[in-house]
Amino acid sequence: MKLILITQLFLLITFPSFADTDEAISITVFLKHDQSKNLFEIKELLKESNFYKHFPPEGVEVESWKVMMGIGQVVTLRVPPSKLAALNLSVERYGWKAYTTEFYPTYDLYPIVKKEIEKARK
Could you give the domains of the chain? Predict the structure, then answer.
């Protein structure tokens, strides 16, 4: 336990805070459908809460917004660290009646995979 705390303290001191940079991070949000409700009911909840007025918050860029059948919607966003709290609050305040949610930090692996595929097929 002491080793973990010492390591974390070292990392905090050694590396600048990511939140102090303007570099955006990629976050994937699962908006899981409440399957006890039909699509009409979900849309009504979103309309009542003004979900689309608040999600995603200003300053957050949508990279993709897809449907994952059987799960719900999967939204990948570019988020400046300074907007992370606003993103979280936009979902908590306006989306939770319609969706359960999960947030995942993500990155684009395809350029690496593409090179591996090309290398393997030569």
Answer: 22-120 (3.30.70.920)
